[in-house]
Structures are given as structure tokens and as C-alpha cells.
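R.M. (postdoc): so does anyone remember the format we settled on? I'll just put the C-alpha cells first.
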């Protein structure tokens, strides 16, 4: 505790590295924070996986999703778009019995619908905030086209935003193309996970480590 009432913004581990409290509780969260969260992901399949997991996380803790990640990968064909897009009612019924994932019909059906929508994006023209993404572009390129000019500089957890102008616009664009479970808060969390924005706390050993953003919030 810093003043007897509030937890510290950063926790220094036995390795001498400062992390936010959420990444300092369990080894799996620590590893995820240190090696993956906020590092750039651009490829279509990698972005689709994280989009799906963020959708499943809605209303749950990230630890719950992270500890079922291999179950999700197995259940959803490694998040390869074409196999998931081909899932039908039989696969949905099987997934609803799969204890290795979150058995939520709406989220399962949304993941299948989102695979189909992501495939359809490849054929479309005029995607993105500037309308400059044409046929052959994919989900990863679309998400990254909403990268802001600056990224937040939070010094404490309370200063980390949960939405942004860009996440609102991205959510609207994805919904327009048939994506589900892609609200502005979920899209901001996706942007954080992919490195599109950097919300590592100032003073964290990961701040500015993505190669996308400098510590001062400007492009690297």
C-alpha cells in the first residue's frame, strides 16, 4: 500500500522489474504481460484470435480466458478463418459441451460469424478511417488503420482509458460489416493487446517496448 488506502500502481517483482498489479499476481499473467501483451500483431489469423478471445472475455476476467487459451485454440481450429467460418449447428452443439472453453452460445456463434465477416473483408474496397484499404486487405490491416496519432501516458490504473475515439470508430466499422461482440470497450482492449495503443503504465518495464510507441506517447 502506498498511503494505507490504495494499492500501488506498480509492483516491483523479485526480478526487480516493475509491473501493474494485475500482472503481478500469478505467473501466467506475469508471463503474458512480459512476453505478449502490447507487442505488435498484424497477421490476419493472429488478430482474429485476439478478437475472438476479447469477445469471450466480455464480462469475465482475463485470467479466466488466458487459462483456457489452448482449449480455445483446439476448439476453434487454431483460429484459422476458413475452418471456423465453415462451422455449423453441429459444431456449435459440440462447442457448447466443451469444458475447455467458455460455453456461451452467443459468443460461440459470434466467433463463427466474425470468421465469415473477416473473410468477406478481403473482397471489399474503401475500408478504414481514410477509405484507402482496398480488395486484398484483411482484418489486421483494418484494425491497425485505426492507430491514433498519440497513445495514452497513464501513470496509474485509473488513468488508463477504456475507450477512445478510434475504438468507437473501429467498433462501428466492424459492426457495419457483420462483426459481433465488437463494442468500443472490447475494441480498445483489442488495440491494447495488439500494440495499436500502448497503455503500459509510466514506469513499467514494458512501457515503450513495442517498437511502435515511444515512452512519451509519440510514434517510435
Amino acid at each position: 500500500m502506498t498511503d494505507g488506502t490504495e494499492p500501488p500502481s506498480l509492483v516491483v517483482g523479485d526480478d526487480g522489474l516493475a509491473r501493474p498489479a494485475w500482472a503481478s499476481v500469478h505467473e501466467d499473467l506475469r508471463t503474458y504481460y512480459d512476453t505478449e501483451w502490447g507487442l505488435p500483431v498484424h497477421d490476419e489469423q493472429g488478430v482474429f484470435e485476439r478478437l475472438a478471445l476479447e469477445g469471450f472475455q466480455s464480462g469475465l476476467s482475463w485470467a479466466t480466458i488466458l487459462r483456457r487459451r489452448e482449449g480455445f485454440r483446439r476448439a476453434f481450429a487454431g483460429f484459422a478463418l476458413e475452418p471456423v467460418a465453415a462451422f455449423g449447428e453441429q459444431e456449435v452443439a459440440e462447442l457448447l459441451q466443451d469444458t475447455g472453453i467458455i460455453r456461451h452460445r452467443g459468443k460461440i456463434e459470434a466467433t463463427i460469424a466474425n470468421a465469415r465477416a473477416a473473410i468477406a473483408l478481403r473482397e471489399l474496397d474503401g475500408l478504414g478511417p481514410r477509405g484507402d484499404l482496398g480488395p486484398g486487405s484483411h482484418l489486421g490491416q483494418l484494425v491497425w488503420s485505426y492507430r491514433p496519432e498519440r497513445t495514452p501516458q497513464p501513470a496509474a490504473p485509473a488513468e488508463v482509458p477504456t475507450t477512445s475515439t478510434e475504438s468507437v470508430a473501429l467498433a462501428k466499422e466492424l459492426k457495419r460489416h457483420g462483426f459481433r461482440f465488437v463494442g468500443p470497450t472490447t475494441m480498445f482492449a483489442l488495440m491494447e493487446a495488439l500494440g495499436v495503443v500502448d497503455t503500459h503504465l509510466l514506469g513499467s518495464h514494458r512501457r515503450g517496448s513495442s517498437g511502435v510507441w515511444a515512452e512519451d506517447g509519440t510514434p517510435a
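R.M.: ...and that's the designed sequence above, right after the C-alpha cells. Also worth knowing: The two ends are 34 Å apart (CA to CA). The chain has a mean pLDDT of 95.
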